[in-house]
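User: I'm putting together a teaching handout on how sequence relates to shape, and I'd like one worked example. Could you take Serine/threonine-protein phosphatase 4 regulatory subunit 3 from Umbra pygmaea, show the sequence you're using, and then write out its predicted structure as tokens right after it?

Assistant: Happy to. First the sequence, then the structure tokens directly below it.
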Amino acid sequence: MSDTRRRVKVYTLNEDRQWDDRGTGHVSSTFVERLKGISLLVRAESDGSLLLESKISPNTAYQKQQDTLIVWSEAENYDLALSFQEKAGCDEIWEKICQVQGKDPALEITQDPIDESEEERFEEMPETSHLVELPPCELARLEEIADLVTSVLSSPIRREKLALALMSEGYMKKLLQLFQVCEDLDNREGLHHLYEIVRGVLFLNKAALFEVMFSDDCIMDVVGCLEYDPALVQPKRHREFLTKTARFKEVIPITDSELRQKIHQTYRVQYIQDIILPTPSVFEENFLSTLTSFIFFNKVEIVSMLQEDEKFLTEVFAQLTDEATEDGKRRELVNFFKEFCAFSQTLQPQNRDAFFKTLANLGILPALEIVMGLDDLQVRAAATDIFSYLVEFSPSMVREFVMQEPQQTDDDVLLINVVIKQMICDSDPELGGAVQLMGLLRTLIDPENMLAPTNKTEKTEFLSFFYKYCMQVLTAPLLANTVEEKHCKDLQEGSTKIHPVCPDNFQTAQLLALILELLTFCVEHHTYHIKTYIMNKDLLRRVLLLMNSKHTFLALCALRFMRRIIGQKDEYYNRYIIKGNLFEPVINTLLDNGTRYNLLNSAIIELFEFIKVEDIKSLIAHIIDNYYKALESIEYVQTFKGLKGRYEQEKDRQTQRLNSRYRRETRTLDEDEEMWFNEEEDDDEGEAIEKSRPEEEFPESYGKYMEAKKVKESEDKENYPKRTPTGSFKFTFSHSTGAANGTNSANGKTAASSTSPNGSPGKPAVSPATPVVKTAMVGLVDYPDDEDEEDEDEEQSPRKRPRLGS
């Protein structure tokens, strides 16, 4: 089995008309008892497993292409191909196939592909009608030849016969010689006929004809014929483009003449398929399948030949990373690698793996790190394309490289930071490059592709690396555009306002939206790391400033970020939101939106609906305690009344639970009365009840809100949210959020202070709350004078009215 003549690759044609590599092995032709006939067997060279077992059927049409390919169809939509390493092996198997079918090995195809209708007509017609007789190759007969070629395209049998006739006696070369004569004579009629002839011959879809037409001697004449489309007033200048405009650049001289010829041929044939030939109609889709295969196998061969030339690739990488290399030269080298990687996409998975591993071993990632930091936009764009190929191939390989970098370099030049900065600095108004880079970053930080069994610590190590070295670079534009400005001159004394510096230009808004999309992804997939980062940087408060943006899509991105955080149903997040009073900018936006029914309105309503349906008790208590007076007038949805109902139900449950605890405790004291009298110190009844309450029965923050309500009862009047005369929405509270949470705010001020529409904390509305007296029962008190205050509020703030007409 070591005979290289029999070494083959097995290919099958998939639904997308692309060839899939099924493996490499050695082919043989032997009698198989089970199939009752001579069969082609291919056994894998790696483990000897059977890759192919195909009986040589007498009626199957086998086709020999490019001297080293044998192609055939076994079923209606199941095409197979054997690609031989050596021509001698292909000839040997071809002779065996022809021997079984009783055909002449000199033919390129063993059978006529006859469908049922053709077969019926074949039986009815005399045999001579199937013989295609070509007219003499003369100028005067060009019209006749063109009519003949056009007429046979609808008949598979006649296409085969015509192909055989064209291959005999060098007929194609004679036709192309006539093209030169017609062009010299400026014979437009003859040139138009030659266009029809050459186009029809391409649609014959025969590899043997392609070998002649695409040879170095003939291909430019073929392109010349295709310039003279009768539908055009003036001929196209394809040859001028191929010979003068399109230049073949050798970044490193290619010494292999066969490789050079293959590269030239592939480029020109691809040009013919993509540029010159019209897009085939639905009925012509299969006419050029062999042309597609011709290009495919050429590309596979080019990549393989370059990959095997170690000296060539080593020299390319050496020049790419050499600081002395000129910018123009480096640009050509990067473009070469981009084209090289694009060609590699034609390879099958195992071959593509070997290709990218070769590039990695030669140092493609350090080289990309250098070129992605250059000022040349074309170079950066090409480097980004190469980087995308590498990330799609193996995110783990890229992650492994970047995690080794901090030991060798500064944070500013880390590969991922270079990628992030390129995303941030994208000059395209539509941010096309930034969107591509954001997708690559998302792939790299996605834990779903970090589950390789060979390295179980990859997820922990890489995420720790990313949040330590890269996250601050990613969020820098977001933090820079959401800074706080205090003590503005145009504000009344004693108030504070947060001004988002966010420019109104569309490009900046798009960039911030991309960053928020990535951060939202992190919230969903990086539970611990992103939570710590959000808490430390107070990130959600900064993000919610973007709710004021004039760009609705950016406000929606900010809202989506908060929605994803709440969707985690994590009490750490909930306490952070409550302590920071972070529902305020959302509710301000809802009220400022007025009676408009739009996506922003629906998204905010959905946020509160989620809290209600999931019964997130701590958030429900916070919303009702602090914002219900501003929301109760919204009646076109039942969301806020539902939240109030949940709040009341939970309050009733707590009351009942406390009462039952109190009764049980009283009975216990009756039974142990004698022991109780013997105690030296009396316990306060309220304290006994308080100690009997297990905190785990309900959220700690909820109980503290109930205690805080007792403080409110001692106040003469409760200050509710109002619209100021200027139309802004102001919150004033009689107790601090810090007291409600049982903690002080970070800056020592009460968080629930007078605020502006964009959510800035103001000065305390009252002095620090008095200590809360522990009690067994906590309730809310409705003050009689509240109704008058509500009427006054409604007059000042029409936006609180129901949005649906009654």
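A couple of points you could highlight for students: Confidence is low (pLDDT under 50) at residues 113-130, 486-502, 680-706, 708-806. The first strand starts at residue 7 and ends at 13.
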